[in-house]
Q: What sequence folds into this?
């Protein structure tokens, strides 16, 4: 952890002069790196306009803005309102005035009868608010500087005509973002007014941009977050008429350097991360979700691992083969892939909460590793121990649980402890299936502050603390087993 802070100090104290790119043509050359939001429709645009540049892909505008300011990225493409917002939060970057083109944002709907009906209602609503001037008013509210007007009259979770499940990405201010614990923005305001007009309740689910379309029709009724209409996307979903039309720009370093010192900037970063808008509550909520998934996945995974181990110990060829196949499949499948298969395919139509899906995924994965640890530990116990216990009148069950298992546990608990810590850290990927854990909350905060230092450092520290405290529990169990072995006495024998 100390090395991370030292590296941050060194990287932040560099004073190398950098060239300011103020013309689009300067980006079309070898060595130039241009950032693109993963899943964005602008990939082909960058490839056609800047064929000599290298394209790099990121999941957050905040990440790209930070990298541009630090000289790790030369530019990134986005829409003009987002660029203006980024410049307000990150003074060292700004967009080139010349526009690359125009783009329209729209709401996406599944290609189902209900999706088509909902899309037609949205189209009628958008035409209405455009004609009566409401859309212009919404534009001025969210693209203006008066934050006091940026208030949304949210409908309840239930409406007389049902509830709409809305998928969005909250890292695209001012269109969709998180403020004071609520999802707000230009497109959210439009949707809330639409729900009031047609009598719908509203439930909002947040996720990465590239996951928005995947759950339409199964988990979500509609999606939006700076989503442009493309021919490729039209093969999978339907789009409403555009709710916004604007220009596409390139954001670059503008030569402005931070004037305040490092420690002053750290203090400001702390305020932005924890104090402003009560963001410490987001961190606390994320910690709770991380602990919930980690603890329950560990408990359930241990039970699964134990049952799998019994299957291998049974001596039956079919059971041993089935367990071996299970273990190989789970160990060979990346946990992120397993999460998305369960969330978007296996449990997609059940509506099962993402947290429960994550617990199941990590439990299945953890169980595969635990079964191998237990089996190796049990096989390492000398057979004479079991034979002696049986000769003394113990049943097979008593022999296993009172003689074999405690000795095996002493050998596999260190490995179990390491695998448990790995599980805690691996939960940082659950944001892929719309879960707001500690890592995802950190990403959301960075998308609002455009500050990478404190959110990332504090997240690393919190993961260390969580892992350390939970490992103490297993360490206590290890010590208890060791003490239990030392305190044992043989009946009928008096030790001098």
A:
């Amino acid at each position: 952890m100390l090395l991370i802070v030292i590296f941050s100090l060194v990287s932040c104290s560099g004073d190398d002069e950098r060239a300011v790119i103020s013309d689009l043509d300067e980006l079309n050359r070898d060595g130039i790196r241009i950032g693109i939001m993963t899943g964005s429709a602008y990939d082909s645009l960058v490839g056609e306009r800047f064929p000599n540049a290298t394209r790099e892909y990121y999941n957050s505008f905040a990440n790209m803005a930070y990298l541009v300011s630090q000289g790790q990225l030369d530019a990134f493409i986005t829409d003009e309102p987002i660029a203006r917002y980024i410049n307000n939060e990150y003074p060292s970057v700004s967009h080139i005035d010349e526009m690359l083109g125009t783009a329209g944002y729209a709401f996406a709907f599944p290609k189902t009868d209900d999706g088509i009906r909902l899309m037609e209602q949205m189209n009628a609503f958008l035409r209405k608010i455009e004609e009566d001037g409401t859309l212009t008013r919404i534009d001025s509210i969210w693209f203006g500087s008066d934050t006091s007007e940026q208030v949304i009259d949210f409908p309840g979770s239930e409406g007389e005509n049902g509830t709409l499940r809305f998928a969005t990405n909250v890292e695209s201010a001012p269109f969709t973002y998180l403020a004071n614990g609520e999802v707000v923005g230009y497109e959210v305001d439009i949707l809330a007014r639409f729900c009031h007009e047609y009598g719908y309740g509203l439930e909002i689910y947040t996720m990465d941009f590239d996951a928005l379309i995947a759950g339409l029709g199964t988990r979500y009724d509609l999606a939006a977050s700076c989503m442009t209409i493309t021919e490729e996307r039209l093969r999978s979903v339907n789009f409403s008429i555009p709710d916004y039309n604007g220009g596409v720009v390139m954001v670059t370093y503008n030569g402005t350097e931070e004037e305040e010192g490092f420690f002053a900037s750290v203090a400001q970063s702390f305020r932005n991360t924890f104090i402003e808008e009560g963001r410490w509550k987001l961190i606390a909520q994320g910690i709770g979700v991380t602990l919930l998934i980690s603890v329950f996945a560990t408990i359930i995974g241990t039970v699964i691992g134990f049952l799998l181990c019994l299957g291998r110990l049974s001596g039956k060829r079919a059971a041993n083969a089935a367990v071996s196949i299970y273990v190989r499949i789970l160990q060979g499948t990346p946990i992120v892939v397993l999460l998305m298969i369960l969330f978007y395919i296996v449990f997609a139509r059940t509506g099962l909460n993402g947290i429960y899906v994550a617990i199941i995924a990590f439990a299945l994965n953890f169980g595969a590793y635990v079964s191998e640890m237990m089996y190796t530990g049990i096989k390492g116990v000398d057979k004479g121990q079991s034979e002696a216990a049986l000769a003394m009148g113990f049943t097979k069950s008593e022999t296993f649980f009172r003689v074999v298992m405690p000795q095996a546990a002493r050998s596999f608990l260190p490995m179990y402890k390491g695998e448990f810590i790995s599980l805690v850290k691996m939960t940082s990927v659950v944001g892929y299936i719309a879960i707001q854990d500690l890592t995802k909350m950190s990403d959301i905060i960075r998308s609002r502050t455009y500050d990478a230092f404190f959110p990332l450092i504090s997240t690393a520290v919190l993961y260390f603390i969580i892992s350390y405290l939970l490992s103490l529990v297993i360490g206590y169990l290890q010590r208890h087993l060791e003490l239990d072995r030392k305190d044992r006495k043989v009946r009928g024998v008096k030790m001098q």
Summary: The two ends are 51 Å apart (CA to CA).
